[in-house]
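Appendix B. Worked example

We walk through a single record from start to finish. Start with the input: the chain for Diaminopimelate epimerase, Alishewanella tabrizica, length 261.
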Amino acid sequence: MMVDAVSQNIFLTKEQIKQLADRNFGVGFDQLLMVEPPYDPDLDFHYRIFNADGSEVEQCGNGARCFAKFVRYRGLTNKTKINVSTKSGKITLYVEQDGQVTVNMGIPQLEPAKVPFKAQKQEVTYIMLTEQQTVFCGVASMGNPHAVLDVTDVSIAPVQTLGPQLETHERFPEKANIGFMQVLSPQHIKLRVWERGAGETLACGTGACAAVVVGQLQKKLGPQVRVDLPGGSLHIRWNGPGQPVKMTGPAEHVFDGQLTL
Ligand SMILES: N[C@@H](CCC[C@H](N)C(=O)O)C(=O)O
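Next comes the structure step. The output line below is what the pipeline stores for this chain.
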């Protein structure tokens, strides 16, 4: 699976985060999470999320599962239901008996202004123009902005070329994560994600949720979907607009380390 480097009670500059994210260290990561005290008595923790390029972001689905594992491993809590907040608001993490983590990711935002995405009105499928081509995509916010494209074969999808063009497209004023989804059946998709501020990653939890939301709105998917990403599989459940998205998947402790910056 993906590697999330998680640190505690430290402050890092954007430059230091970029240095840490550099794969040449051999401990590269796509996102860094920093634990902070909760700001509300109903919460167990607050944490901040940084992309590999040092930008601070609102939400991270894989990070949420890793966070649940981290706080229990470090003895910061022994709860199996953990209430947390991130820049995008409150979410709840549930550690299952088999060690997998389910995250209630909240209600996806579909209104263009809330993504944010520039559009005259809300649509299920938008047409976007890049310099070279016309692209059809669905758009949703899972706390962070996502566009999802339906492709016939994800293994040859232009993730590395079209991904960055759409990430920085002028219709996404805060940039976006770009998912390339291949529908195998209404219950099963393959997905690759070009992540804002991180490039193509092995897995993206919010990207998996956004793909299921978009696929369901486009009438291609049912309410329960297995999402196969290069790093592993996630199970996503969504009962339609106004309902929260639930994500279940693994989180593995990889190693402990200490770095001098
Ligand atoms: N990989 C994450 C998403 C991380 C944030 C994203 N790159 C962004 O900028 O919004 C996930 O698992 O959800």
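Two observations about the output. Residues 30-31, 51, 57, 60-63, 144, 177, 195-198, 201, 204-206 surround LBFN2T5F (CB under 6 Å). The mean pLDDT is 92.
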